[in-house]
Amino acid sequence: MTGMLSRADLHTHTHYSGFSKVGFIPYPESVTPPETMVDTAMKKGLNVLCITDHNEIKGAWRAQRYVREKGLDIEVVAGEEVTTVDGEVLGLFLQERIPKGLSAAETIEIIHDQDGLAVAPHPFSYRCPSLGARISEFCLDGVEVLNAAHRDAYVNRLAKREAGLAFAHTGGSDAHSPEMLGDAYTEFPGESAEDLYLAIRQRETNPGGGTAPLRHWILWNMEIAHGVGKRLLASFNGVGHLPDDPLGRVYQMRRHNRIIALGACMAFMATPLPFVCGIIGEGWIRWKGRRKWKEVSSELNG
């Protein structure tokens, strides 16, 4: 690659990314509005921001509208992290939302029909649905060989080893909070989203940055607890959620469950629990990553 190089984060999330559960308590994957992610991307010097919420494109459209209305000097690419029966696939430069639950091959075909690009995120993840060694079977445009959210040092190494030269190598933060945004990124020649598109097509990209610091993980968990707790307090004060609020599910919990959930959020925020959970989680992540390395290496060598 020659000439000017710019940075894009190809894998980020907003509060449109849906919910997971701890027991009976639903918790959002992110509580960050698209506008905040755009502002943070600019502060961190990114030229292009790809918003790739789980099975949703509304957050990306909202971010694009925000950039247009404010006249901001950054470009937002509409993307989606699509759940397929074979594992997750990133669709970039999309025009429409892609339904989940299709095969990876069907999903990639729909992405290409929209003149979009298909990238395999965290292909060897031990905690996210991934394509694994099957990346060679699909008409992918790129493979994420650096995912900042995977701190184990093994998953990214596997992805880089197996991606070879057949795909563009990309990096993404997989940020679910502003702190994590830009921890990993993709370098490309040029400045614009169009330049990024061509660079991926021509395999002229390089991953940059590194894995997310542990403090970013801890801050993300604290941000989730704070965001959920704030909405639970509002629900007890008679404040209803707006119809288009992507976090409205919090208000729909039964009253006694909301009381328990609020107590859990307050306990999490007011005690050393975030740091204890972070340290315990760090050990688990490294153990699982090492197991994944041995498992995949054994399969490939066998």
Task: Explain this structure.
The protein contains 8 helices and 11 strands. The protein is an alpha/beta fold and 302 residues long. The chain has 2 domains: 5-213, Metal-dependent hydrolases (TIM Barrel, Alpha-Beta Barrel), CATH 3.20.20.140; 215-285, no CATH class. It has a 9-stranded mixed β-sheet with strand order 9-8-7-6-5-4-1-10-11, sandwiched between helices. The chain has a two-stranded antiparallel sheet with strand order 2-3. Helix 1 packs across helix 2, helix 6 packs antiparallel against helix 7 (255-270) and helix 6 crosses helix 8 (273-301). The longest helix is centred in the last third of the chain and has 29 residues, at 273-301. The two termini are 36 Å apart. The mean pLDDT is 93.
End-to-end span in angstroms?
36 Å
Number of strands: 11
Give the strand content.
15-25%
**CATH secondary-structure class of the largest domain:** Alpha Beta
User: How large, in whole angstroms, is the Cα Rg?
Assistant: 19 Å
Features:
single chain; 302 residues; alpha/beta; TIM Barrel; 2 domains; nine-stranded mixed β-sheet; two-stranded antiparallel ribbon; 8 helices; 11 strands; 20% strand; globular
Layout of helices and strands:
Layout: E1 5-12, E2 19-22, E3 25-28, H1 34-43, E4 48-51, H2 58-70, E5 75-84, E6 87-92, H3 104-113, E7 117-120, E8 142-147, H4 155-163, E9 168-172, E10 184-189, H5 193-201, E11 206-209, H6 214-236, H7 255-270, H8 273-301
Parallel strand pairs: 1-4, 4-5, 7-8, 8-9
Antiparallel strand pairs: 1-10, 2-3, 5-6, 6-7, 10-11
